[in-house]
């Protein structure tokens, strides 16, 4: 399906992309801690809201 060159390029691209993304995340980690202090509560609220919607859907379906 893919040639040997395309497969090698895809593997090297994926590895380099993951390394660069990890490096940039670690570089900006201290900034993220300052700017996004309350995000975990917003995410928790969002997930609880989604769970609530699924519970309502299941209750109405019965």
Task: Give the overall shape.
Answer: flat
Helix content: over 70%
- Distance N to C terminus: 48 Å
Number of strands: 0
In N-to-C order, the SSE pattern is: HH
Characterization of this structure:
This protein has helices at residues 4-35, 39-61. The mean pLDDT is 93. The chain is mainly alpha-helical. Keywords: Membrane, Transmembrane, Transmembrane helix. The chain crosses the membrane at residues 6-26, 38-60.
Task: Map the helices and strands.
Blueprint: H1 4-35, H2 39-61
Task: Provide a brief overview of the structure.
Keywords: Membrane, Transmembrane, Transmembrane helix. The chain is mainly α and 62 residues long. It contains two helices and no strands.
Pick out its properties:
0% strand; membrane; transmembrane; transmembrane helix; mainly alpha; 62 residues
